[in-house]
Structures are given as structure tokens and as C-alpha cells.
Amino acid sequence: MFNFLKGVVGGSGTGLKDLPYNVGDPYPSAWGSWIHHRGTSKDDGSQVSIFALSGNNAQDGHLAAGRNGVKRLRTVRHPNILSFLHSTEVETHDGSTSKVTIYIVTEPVMPLSDKIKELGLKATQRYALFSSYEH
Fold it and tell me: What is the CATH number of the domain that holds 33?
């Protein structure tokens, strides 16, 4: 059963070393159980975002939800959803324990809080920015 799910979720590679992207530093903020990393393409060095979800049990509910999300991202094409580029699932063994990690690669994005800091927006500017999206 696990091999079937890996086939559904897995990308074109067989492991992290075969992922055609370099996993970079993580952003300090997290979204749920996912860790958001900066990344680059091994082919042309273009920027990407890499999201990783890990668990110690292949049947973990978080991993099952992550696999479901990967299936949905592969089929959904909508302007308000990140562009899906690649995914893979990697199982690593360290002695008697194993760890399963799902990687999703998307177009480059950054957490909103980091973007606000980067832009150096003052409180009134942030309010104007967010209130313009309410309409």
C-alpha cells in the first residue's frame, strides 16, 4: 500500500538526491506542520519554494493529508493557487527509526510577514494594503 501511495505522490526522482532542485534555508515562520524552504533549480538556478512535511510513521495522518494535498495540487490549475512544479516522497533510515518526508516544489513565494518587513511598510501602509484586498 505504501509503495502505491509513493507512486501517486512521488515525482520523477527516486529520492532527495534525484530532486532536480536544491533545498535551501528554511524561512523562520512555519505554516502548520510544513516547513517552507528557499530553493533553486539545479538546471538553471532559478528560485523556487520547497515545502517539506515529515513524519516518523508512513501511515501518519499528517502525511496522509500531505499526500492528498499533493494529488490536488497536481490537478488544480487556478490563478490564485501556487504553480506546482514537482513533488517527491523520501524515506530515510537512521538505525532503528525511519522518517518519511514529502517535498512539494512550487513557484517562488515568501511568507507575508517577511515580505512586509522587506518592503519596510509602516502600520498605516500595511492597513491600506490589506484593506484594499477586502473589496
Answer: 3.30.200.20
Angle between helices 2-9 and 61-75 (to 10 degrees): 40
**Distance of alpha carbon 97 from alpha carbon 58, whole angstroms:** 12
0.90 exceeded by pTM? no
Q: Which strands make up the sheet holding 97-106, listed edge to edge?
A: 21-26, 35-41, 47-55, 97-106, 84-94
Q: Is residue 118 part of a domain?
A: no
Collapse the DSSP code of 43 into the 3-class scheme (helix H, G, I; strand E, B; otherwise coil) and give the result. coil
Query: How confident is the model over 81-92, as a mean pLDDT?
Result: 88
Residue 6 lies in a domain: yes
Are 89 and 99 in contact, with CB atoms under 8 Å apart?
no
Q: What is the pLDDT of residue 22?
A: 95
Please give the residue range of the domain that contains residue 61: 2-109
CA atoms within 13 A on the CB side of 133: 4
How many structural domains comprise the chain? 1
